[in-house]
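step 4 of 6: structure.
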Amino acid sequence: MIRNKSLVSINDYNKEDYLAILDLAEQFESRPVRNTLQGKVVATLFFEPSTRTRLSFESAVNRLGGRIIGFSEAGTSSVTKGESLKDTIKTVSNYCDLIVMRHPIEGSARYASEVSGVPVINAGDGANQHPTQTLLDLYSIRKTQKTLDNLAIMMVGDLKYGRTVHSLLQAMSSFNTTFHFVSPDELKMPGEYKMHLENRGLKYYEHKDFTDILPEVDIVYMTRVQKERFSDPMDYEKVKNVYVLRNNMLEQTKPNMKILHPLPRVNEITEDVDDNMKAYYFTQALNGVYTRQAIICSILGLDQK
Amino acid sequence: MKKDRKHLSVSAIKDGTVIDHIPAEKLFNVISILGLDSIPNQITFGTNLESKKLGRKAIIKIADKFFKETEINKIALIAPTAKLNIIRDYEVVDKRQVEVPDEIIGIARCMNPKCITNNDSVVTRFRVIAKPRISLKCHYCEKITDQENLEIL
Ligand SMILES: [Zn+2]
């Protein structure tokens, strides 16, 4: 049961929960404006700025008739006066029905959920978790492929530090997915995630570039390769153009293939891809609103209407 | 003969618990984890005793103290080799081995410097995901702390 339970990590939900959220998100897509949240107050506490995520949550709440309180960076709040996270959460939970929080410290959302009087949705805690992103990724995959079962996903770029690929891997491992990991040696998928797949009997393949396997996959999930991740800048220079997706690489790909990206993008997808039917990253962002509407209503127990 | 010499190194107790086979360098960690430095019981200990298995071992005898399993298992992280003798009226009435519990609260530090437990006054909490070579998954940041990086608070 999702009701009244915080969503801190994608591992808080099981396969049935994912599917229940996606089904509900479909209903919101067909009719996004409702009064479901009338009289409800949602606090968006962004201890570090993330305009994209905050606007998506606030759009979701506004379209359902709810009210928003909160702050968009810690600099404007009592946090700068030295108030502890615990005190902030305990105070704010008196004023609202639900807290959406983003915080640079890993594990902060789990801790907040333990001291809060109302459910907490984690909108990103450092490099750890960002479960609503994963659910909107699942929604986008199911919508474009008509199923989540037995798909082949290629994950490209920074697979070592990228929390979105880690969470997506964990979620998709319930659906008999085949994984292709494409990354430089320095940014390979960590052993613990590969072990997770092995324990579940799932196949994965590691590659240094993506060209010859592109035609086999249903989803290409692109991420950014950041210069800061390399101890030697020369290593970055060597690989920076290897993990770039260009329109002319898409010719042999499957007709159902779609390209996803958690955004913001820098140069890892060239702009000539944007007009290709297989580019899905902007619609993926729109799906985030429907998915967040579904998550909020499920947690508040308002999903029956 | 050998047995007698052993008994000489640390005096016997009438009732209580003997914790044997503690790696010598972990003695003071064990004392602090079990809170032995702040209980009124009579305690004797010996350290740097010869041990075939450990090289140098330590032993602690605590009079009139009997540990709950959850309490004693706290030392399993740092002294997995430790063995317990439960003494009543100078006789060993029970022998037990420590076991690594499934959940560790406090005791260990999360190896992730960005974890809330290293940045705020939050008690650490882990799920033990591998034994006997310990691997701990942080309840908060979800990162794994392995044996090599295990640090006792
Ligand atoms: Zn941690």
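step 5 of 6: annotate
 - Chain B has two domains: 2-97, 103-152.
 - Residues 2-9 of chain B form the longest helix (8 residues).
step 6 of 6: archive
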